Amino acid sequence: MPAPLRALTVTAAAAAGVIAYACVVERNWFALRRYEVPVLPAGAAPVKVLHLSDVHLTPGRHRLLSWLRCQDSLGPDLVVNTGDSIAHPQAVGPFLAALGPLLERPGIFVYGSNDLYSPVPRNPLGYLREPTRIVSRNIPNLPWSDLGAGMAAAGWLDANNRRGRLKVGDLDVEAAGVHDSHIGRDRYDAIAGPADPAADLRIGVMHSPEPQVMDAFAADGYDLLLAGHTHGGQVCLPGYGTLVTNCGIDPDRARGLHRHPAEGGPDRPWLHVSAGLGTSPWAPFRLACRPEASLLTLVPRIG
Ligand SMILES: [Fe+2]
Questions:
Q1: I need a labelling partner for 260 at 20 to 30 A (CA). Which of 4, 88, 114, 212 fits?
Q2: pLDDT at residue number 261
Q3: pLDDT at residue 125 in the model
Q4: How many angstroms separate the alpha carbon of residue 10 from the centre of ligand 1?
């Protein structure tokens, strides 16, 4: 075989191997990330927060469902779901069933665009140019209200442009959230105003970690912000990291535990962005960015 043809064959085989790995192996290689967050008042007992996001459930994701079903064994004191839970009209029942006993724990949820609108094929290279926008469909075609009703019926706080109060362990928690700003449904005005300084903890929840929304939560005195949407970039370069976030947040904070703003004093809120558990069914791969959920152990502030 001539050298150029041999090089082409090797390159094609390597590319096929990477694609097969990303679609078959890594997409189903779920990870539980653990973080300690010093955000509680002095003397408070630690509490565990399970952060779920971007499940994008479609029929046939049996590995994903069984992994999700096992997470109650972590014993979280609070579950936070930052949206994009479904991607198919028949996904609500299996999603709620997979949550199972997690629904008996305190919970908070917001919606992502994919809870309302079924996924459509996109050119993956489009994500490199600019964040996606759903402009052509104004009427939701997925059963987002059944999804929300299922979680709300279990007692979870619907934080879509709403504020609420929860008991989490021994803590009195104020929580507020916005609907998905990625599709222009966020109404921060509906929840604006200083968070209650008498609460033990103030949590802000959103699907898409847009800087202007996080700025507003920070200005109102929230301690911990939780978001999803980015998929951590979904396809990352080993040794480099996230290429795109599909929203306004910088790639360095597209997943994991950070502060917001990125620079500033010690009173800035903590920010956790989940890389999420799923993918669009039209982009069924993850590379150097394993699907994940996170267990945040909240502990007293340092100093
Ligand atoms: Fe998503």
A1: 114
A2: 97
A3: 63
A4: 34
Integer Cα distance of 65 and 296 in angstroms: 21
Sign of CA dihedral 38, 187, 150, 134: negative
Strands (E), 72-156: 78-81, 107-109
Residues with Cβ within 5 Å of ion ligand 1?
A: 54, 84
* Ligand 1 centroid from CA 181, angstroms: 13
Q: Give the pLDDT of residue 295.
A: 98
**Amino acid, res. 45:** A
**3-class SS at 63?**
helix
Rounded distance between C-alpha atoms, residue 273 and residue 294, angstroms: 9
Handedness of CA 214, 112, 227, 45 (dihedral sign): positive
CA of 163 from ligand 1 middle (Å) equals: 23
What distance in angstroms lies between residue 18's CA and the mean position of ligand 1's atoms? 22
Task: Give strand pairing partners of 128.
Answer: none
Report how far residue 109's alpha carbon sits from residue 227's, in angstroms, rounded to the nearest whole number: 11
- What's the residue count for the chain? 303
Instruction: For residue 15, report the distance from its CA to the centre of ligand 1, in Å.
Output: 25
What is the mean pLDDT, run by run of 10 residues, along the chain of 303 residues?
87 92 94 98 97 97 98 98 98 98 98 95 66 68 98 98 97 98 96 98 98 98 98 88 92 96 95 96 91 98 86
Round the CA-based radius of gyration of the chain to a whole number and report it. 19
3 CA from centroid of ligand 1 (Å):
43
Q: How far is the CA of 273 from the centre of ligand 1 (A)?
A: 12
Helix (H/G/I), strand (E/B), else coil: 148: helix
Of 110, 56, 70, the C-alpha closest to 291 is: 56
* Full-model pTM: 0.94
Query: Maximum CA pair distance of the chain?
Result: 75
